[in-house]
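Homework help board

Subject: predicted structure for assignment chain

Our instructor gave us this sequence and asked us to write out the predicted structure in token form, then describe one feature. I got the tokens but I'm not sure how to describe them. Can anyone check?
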Amino acid sequence: MKKQIIKIIYFIAIFLLSLVVAGKIMNTENSDRTTEMGAATFPTVTLTEDGRYVNTMHGYANEMNICYMRENILPIGLDRTVNYSINTYGQNIDTISFEVRKADGSGLVENTDITEYSENEGVINGSLQIKDLVDYDREYMLVFLLGTNGKTVRYYNRIIVTEDDSEYNVDQFLDFALDFSNKTFDKNIDSSELTSYLESNSEGDNTSYSYVNIHSSYSQVTWGDLNIVSHSEPELFIRDIHAQTAVVELQYQVVLGTDAGDKAYNIVEDYRIRYTSDRMYLLNYERTMNYVFEGDTKDITGDKIELSISQADIELVESDGGSSFAFVNEGRLYAYNSTNNKLARLFGFYDEKNDDARTRWQRSTIQVLGIDEGGNVTFVVSGYMNRGDYEGYVATVVYEYNSTTNAVEELVCIPSYESPEILEAYAKEFSYVSSDDTFYMIMDNNVYAVDMSDRSYKVVIDDIHDTDYKISESFSMIAWQTQEYKELNQMNLSTQTENTITAENGEYIRLIGYMGEDIVYGLVKETDIYNDEMGNQIYPMYCIKIEDGDGNVLENYEPSGILITDTTITENQIALTRVSWNSETQKYENALDDQIVSTLVEEEGSNSLILVATDEYENILEIDAKSDINTKNMLLQTPSLTLHEESRMVSLENTQDENESPTYFVYGMHEVEGIFTKPAEAISLAYNAPGVVVNNSGNYVWIKGNLLTKNQIMDITYAAEDYENMTTTDSTVVCLNLMLQNEGVSRNVQEMLDGGNSVTDILSTALPDYDILNLQGCEMDAMLYYINQDIPVLASLSDGTSVLIIGFNELNTVLMDPRSGTVYKLGMNDSRTLFSTAGNKFITYLK
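My token output:
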């Protein structure tokens, strides 16, 4: 018996010892398999302007596509000298050089080593002089190249060299922005020092400090009754600059004192300013304020997570049952699981141990692609990688968070050579992960499917922006069609099944979009197709259909004697622009608009974002959770990263064709606002943003403002006076002849028009090296940009005739009218009415 007891004790001891050894082995394996994200190592480069630090640049690990790197700009004086400062952050700098490249990326202008500079306490200061190889008033890209730790790190900043040091008024623009910002904090100033620049009216939303603009009240702009304890010195950025206007951005933090302790908020201020010799004009002003959530329990009460003063467009995604949800706050991703009462900060480049200008620079976006009841999250980070293994890359990285192991695993990394802003814009347009671990994304104008298991990929849709395409609300469905309009293709990305909807004989099919997950398309009879005043083919739809994913028809809208020429989907409503045939005039005429309204009601989630009104802070943002959160027992975690022996990087082949149709990028005051293939859509957005439009060659297509007080194209004025038989010739032919003559080109326009060519066809054929712009739907005022460049604009009128806009002043436009054979002035308001009544149909061109 005694021996048996000893034997039992022996076996128990062996078992316990084996558990200890196994535990040590497992812990060792876990410590070998996981790690923390590496610290930032790249220095920063900042330019100096009249003693001020401006345009801090962050390093890129790869050579980027120059024509897309547009973030900042600095005018350079006649001496072509650039002063700079390098913060090494303790890193050794082996070599410094710079390049000057053409802004469209077409060639290298200069490549020079920098050997003379001073260094003090980890900061290098110096200056460089650009060689006399650049043209005045033309943009170039200045690239710094730093050799550090065996790597070449690149830094990009646009420059423009001017013959007159005062032409761009940089100091005045910076002075104005800084002075305005400082005065918003000063309660002792005369209010007129700010109100003289504001346009306070009903357009301003004075219910929240999260967004303030030029239309907000004086109290709102000057922070109301907020208890501001401190604010940091702002970082200065010149986003855009022209002869008369500039966009200046300030970034800083404010700290508010509260009963629960101090709270930090990130502030971004954007100014669009116009300079004249008499005074400065504030054309646009925007300020955003966002709370920096740290996961502190002081921000959690009952079932509420307080995000304080924050913009309401943050991303909140919940699991099907609502037990878990994830949200993004100021560049960091959090997830909460109510089952285990755990709040985890899944991703972010800055934290308590990594907090400086490099890690806080936000040029990436985080999107939650899926979350389950167990709190496991799939998410994607797109843009600039501030630190870690991909430091300095612009990339799309898909991650998966395992709630059980509290670890984040990288699934795939897809590098890009476009700018972070453009990659962010593409990511927001479309990112999706299917149940079989296939990641779908848009890059280089293609839709790619990346298999995250074996890191293979394929092109699902080639040159997506050369087709009509639409994406469903959940991103799980995508439909597209070519310009032939004979069929449309649809793909269910969650199942990878495709189907094609084909038009009947004698008919065409037009893709309209999605209402939720249901596809909307229209049918066109071949006999109804007609040409508009510009010669463009119009495909009016006699029927609108809505189908679900199984092909069941949910709506069949087919009015008698009515055709639909345009549609707009807004949430659960389709607005219809309609026409009817007038047998007397033998023309289509406008009919009453109509709409299709869906009866489907969107279900509210178990967890939601709500705005709560407070006395001191006005509206604040809160997450209304499904159930109460026990803050005493809540676990706050920061996951580690799972290590892999093999690379997870997938480089996609760029299949872009140099001759493909242009893509138009809209740059607002702070970021890329949109990407389009139709210039009219881009200019319409930029007109309201406000901003500029740049094509994929890096050339300006349109710029908000920056107009002379007057301009007139005198060559066309004189040519019109000498034009024979103007009133006896088709007005569109006269306009086209004068446009071509202005460019030194002669064509038989009448013959081309009679042969069925549209206005855009004729201009494209006669001006093959030009970008022909169909700007139908744009505001008349936007056309003045082209007149300012001595480029005429052809406009169509309600009666089917055409005129040329060839000039303007502060009160009038100058029109060339072939009907009367005259050049005359028309008041601005009358001009707007004249063209808007005709549908704002404009065509012009760019070299």
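Reply (TA_rk): Your tokens look well-formed. For the description, you could write something like this. The two ends are 103 Å apart (CA to CA). That's the kind of observation they're looking for.
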